[in-house]
Amino acid sequence: MKVSTDVANYEARLADVIRTAREVVRRRFLVLLVVAGLITVIGVTLSFLITPVYTGVTRIQIDPTRNPLNRL
Fold it and tell me: Which of 13, 37, 56, 60, CA to CA, is 20 to 30 A from 23?
């Protein structure tokens, strides 16, 4: 019977934690929404303000001994 009592206590504690987290989110929903919105707006704004920079470098090495036209 001790095992079932421990499981019941654990489930009760887990339910309390979930209920508390849900209440905190419900109470602070507007604050969370505003903060998430501000972070999104700042991120989008900064991404549009950054000057795009592209640097491409290519190195080609031509081996004249492997030219198929030299074999004719």
Answer: 37
